[in-house]
Amino acid sequence: MANPPRTSRRTFLAVGGLAALALGAGGAWYRATHKTEAQRFALDGEARAALHAIAPAILDGALAHDPARRQQQLGSAIDAVEAAIRGLPQATQEEVQDLFGLLALRPARRLLTGVPTGWESADIRQVSAFLQDWRVHRLGMMRSAYGALHDLVLGAWYAQPASWDAIGYPGPPRVLA
Amino acid sequence: MTAQIPDPIEAGLKRGWKVIDASTLDQDQRLEADVVIVGSGAGGGISAEILARSGLSVIVVEEGPLKSSRDFKMREADAYPQLYQESAARKTSDKAINILQGRAVGGSTTVNWTSSFRTPESTLAWWRRHHGLAFASSDELAPWFAMAERRTGVVDWLVDPNQNNDLLRRGATKLGIATSSIRRNVQGCWNLGYCGMGCPTNAKQSMLVTTIPAALDNGATLITRARAERLQLRGQTVDELICTALDESGVQPSGRQLRLRARHFVVSGGAINTPALLLRSKAPDPSGQLGKRTFLHTTLISAAFYETRVEGWAGAPQSVYSDHFLGVDPIDGPLGYKLETPPLHPLLLATTMSGFGEQHAAAMRDFAHLGGMLALLRDGFHAESAGGEVHLRADGGAELDYPLNDFLWDGARRALLSMAEIQFAAGARTVQPAHEKAQRYRSWAEARREIAALPQRAHVTRVVSAHVMGGCAMDGDERRGVVDPAGRYRGLANVSVHDGSLFPTSLGANPQLTIYAITARLASGLAAQLTKRPAAALA
Question: Does A38 touch chain B (CB under 8 A)?
C-alpha cells in the first residue's frame, strides 16, 4: 500500500528488455531445483505462493468474500491449474515452468512485477497493476506470459461446476451427463 | 440413461475389432500391413475405409485415445485434455493464435461443430488456374462430394437455429446482408450443443462412428496412443514407420516403441503434424515447400450482450452463416471473411474473454445473455497472405510459426467492425470485441469509432483458429507443390498425403467435407493402383 503501483510500473517498463534473459534464467533455475519428481510438473514453494497471490487478482469478482471459503476456493483452483499444466505437452510444461521459475526468483519478481516484498504479502492492487502492464506490454513475451496466467487461472476456475451457479450456466443436460 | 444409447465402439470391440492401446504395451511391437495410415481424422478415416474395403490390409495409427459416446460427458475439463491437441491450447510459436485441433480416434471430426460445406467454386477455380489442379471443379468433384455426404449423413438442418445463430441471421438481414443455413453431418441429432466435447448420442456422423468402424469391420488394425515419430527411409522408399507409445495420459512416452512395415504409407496427421512427421523423417523436399504456406482461417471474435437470453451453450452450435464479406473484394484482394457463430461454454468463453478481475467476472455473470460471433479470414490468396510455416522444436515436436502482418490486421479490423454492426442491428445493448483494449461499446456509432482506432497486434487482438490447412501443398507444378495431383509425396516412392495439408490455399469454408471428398478421390486412386482393381466405394 505504501508503495504505489505507479512506481513499480515505471521500473517494470524500463527493464522490459531484460525479460527474455530473466525468463530463461528463471526456468533453468526452477528446473535445476525441481529434478526430484522426474518430469512431473509441480507447483510448490515460492512458485505456488506466486500463483496464490496472482489468482485472487484474476478471479476478483468471482471468488467468495468469506475468507475461509475464499481460501478453500483458491486452493482448489490452484490444484486445478497444476492438473491442467500436467496435461500439456512436455515442451509447453517447461515454458510454464520458466514463467513460474521467474516469478519465484526474488530479484526478477521485484524487477518485472514491481511486487516489493514476498508473494505472501503481495496485495491485489499490486498484482493487478503488474498484470495490467503485462497485458499490453511492448514485448510479446510479456504479453504471452500474461496470456498464460489469464488462460490457466480462468480456465481452471470456470471448468469447475462450483463456478457455474454464479454465471447462470445450468451445466450439461443431466439426462446424459 | 446412458445405457439406452447404443455405443458402436463398445459393440465393435465385442465383435473382435483389432485395437491396440499402445499405452498398455509392456514390450516393443512389430506389425506389418499393405498400408499404414498415420491419423484417424477426416483424411485418415476416409482412406482407411476405402483401402480396407478394397481388400488391402490396413493399420491406422492415432496419437489420441479411443473414446466413445459413453465417455462423452459434455464436460470441458475432461474433453479438452482427452480429445484435443495440447488440451485445446495448442498455439502458434509466438502464442498469438490459439488452435483447436482434435486428437482422438476420429481426429477433429470427433469434436468439430458438424458444419458441412462443399468447397466454394471460387476456391476451386483458383486451384485450377494457379495450382495446376485440373480436377478442382464442382462438376468433377460432385460425385465425390455426394459419396462423402451420403457417408457422413450431411443433411439440410431444418430445426430452428438457436438464439446465438438466429442473432447472426436477424442482424445481417436488417442490414441487407444475406445469410444461409449450414448443412450438418448428423442423424437423429438431439440439438444439445455439445458437439465440441464429443457427441454423446452418436448423432454426429464423424469418422469415429462411420469410416473407422467400417475399416475395423473389414479387418483393419487400429493403434491408439501412439505418436508417429519418423518414417524410416531407404533411398526414396519408406521401409517402416517408427512410433512412440504414450502413457495413459497421452503426454509422456511410455518407453515402448512400435515399428510398422508397409508397402505404402498414407500420412493424415493434419496440417501441423503431417509436415512435422515428414520434416523429422528428413524426407526429400524437392520443391522446398514442405511445411510452408500453412493457413488457418485466422479467426476474430466479437461478443455482444442482449436484453433477452441467448444461452449460447444450447442447440446446434453452427446453423447460420454469411459469405457476404467473402464477395466484397476479389478473392486475391483485401482479406475476405466468412461469418459464423461459436458454441459458448464456460471454460472456452472465460479464456477467450479479455481482461481479468471484476471486469471479467461481470461479463461472465451475463453469460446467459451473451452472444458470440466469428469472422474467419480467407488466407492464402494474396501475396501478402502467405500463411505460416511448420518447424520442429529442439525436442522434435511440431510448432507453427504464423506471422501476423498489416495485411491481416486490415482484415481483422474490418471483420471486428462488421460483426459489431451486425450485433447492434440484432439488438445488442453492448458489444465487446475480443481485444485487450476494447471496451463494452454501447452503440454502433461508438463501436465504429473505437474499433477503427484499436491497435491491432499479436496477443492484444484475440486470434484463434479451428481450421489448419496447407504445408504439403498439392500442385500440378513440381516446383511449387510438395504433393502431386494424385496425392503422392514428391521425392518418396511409396508415401501419400491425405489430409487438409494438401490445400494450396485456405478454403473460405469449414474444411471437413472438402477433406472427405478429395481424400476419397485420392484413396480410390491409390487402392486401384495397389490392388490393380477398381476401388471399393464408401458405404
Answer: no
All three cell numbers of B57, joined, read 490390409
Would you say residue A4 has pLDDT above 50?
no
Give CA–CA dist B149/B513, Å, rounded: 8
What are the φ and ψ backbone dihedral angles of A113, each rounded to 5 degrees? Answer: -110, -15
| C-alpha Rg value of chain A to the nearest Å | 17
Q: B392 at the A interface (CB within 8 A)? A: no
Provide the domain limits for residue A47: 5-161
Distance from CA of A88 to the nearest CA of B (A): 5
Q: How far apart are CA B522 and CA B501, in angstroms?
A: 14
Q: Grid coordinates representing B264?
A: 505404402
- Nearest residue on chain B to A127, alpha-carbon basis: B357
Q: B171: which residues sit within 8 A by CB, 6+ positions away?
A: B421, B422, B423, B424, B425, B426, B427
Number of folded domains that form chain A: 1
Q: Is A92 close to B89, i.e. CB distance below 8 A?
A: yes
- pLDDT above 70: percentage of residues in chain A: 78
Task: Check CB contact under 8 Å for B364 and A62.
Answer: yes
In a domain, A28, yes or no: yes
The interface pTM score, or ipTM, of the predicted complex is 0.96
Q: B308 with B370: CB under 8 angstroms? A: no
Question: Which residues on neighbouring strands pair with residue B38, listed in sequence order?
Answer: B61, B267
List the domain boundaries for chain B: 17-66+107-152+206-292+471-531, 163-189+298-465
Q: Which three cell numbers stand for residue B292?
A: 510452408
Instruction: Give A-chain residues touching B96 at CB under 8 angstroms.
Output: 140, 144
Domain B17-66+107-152+206-292+471-531 has CATH 3.40.50.300: no
- Rounded mean pLDDT, B115-137: 98
Q: Does A59 touch chain B (CB under 8 A)?
A: yes
